[in-house]
TrEMBL record:
The chain crosses the membrane at residues 107-126. It is found in: Endoplasmic reticulum membrane; Microsome membrane. This is Cytochrome b5. The keyword Electron transport applies. InterPro entries: Cyt_B5-like_heme/steroid-bd, Cyt_B5-like_heme/steroid_sf, Cyt_B5_heme-BS, Cytochrome_b5.
């Protein structure tokens, strides 16, 4: 079984000389890789102690870049240890969800009166024989 890294541990390794990165539910030690990163060290340092999945994916990293992760793996992230996964995008996610809720409400707004209208005509049809 691979090692479980808690949020506390992830946070404890969030400086330039000792840096863990959380990506796709796994924790990677990027300390030695910082100087080699083609995208510079700042971008990785900025993701220290948080979920870098979205930042990493947004760049459209190559398969070679993904393959490099294998050598840096420390272990699995302990999802129950505190960090709300994808913390960087938490608010964006929340607003997307709010958007979906609004969309659902507006669908209902049309659906309910239409159903009522349909029911009314059905009732008329059955009681009077015409619409
Ligand atoms: C340990 C994790 C990472 C590895 C192994 C990695 C690896 C690489 C590699 C190999 C490239 C060259 C292009 C490619 O092959 O896709 C690259 C480019 C780049 N990476 Fe990463 N990367 C990591 C994390 C990140 C993170 C967290 C960010 C945050 C935004 C980032 C931002 C970038 C950017 C902006 C470039 C483009 C550089 C350019 O073309 O000028 N990388 N990365």
């Amino acid at each position: 079984m691979s090692k479980l890294i808690t949020y506390e541990e992830l946070k404890a390794h969030s400086n330039k000389d000792d840096l863990y990165m959380l990506f796709d539910g796994k924790v990677y030690d990027c300390t030695k890789f910082l100087d080699e990163h083609p995208g510079g060290d700042e971008v990785i340092i900025a993701e220290a102690g948080r979920d870098a999945t979205e930042a990493f994916e947004d760049v459209g990293h190559s398969d070679e870049a993904r393959a490099m992760l294998v050598d840096l793996l420390v272990g699995d992230f302990d999802k129950d240890s505190g960090l709300n996964m994808k913390s960087g995008s938490g608010s964006a996610q929340a607003s997307r969800m709010a958007g979906a809720a609004v969309e659902q409400t507006s669908n209902l707004m049309y659906f309910v009166p239409l159903m009522a209208l349909g029911a009314y005509f059905a009732w008329r049809y059955y009681t009077t024989g015409s619409v």
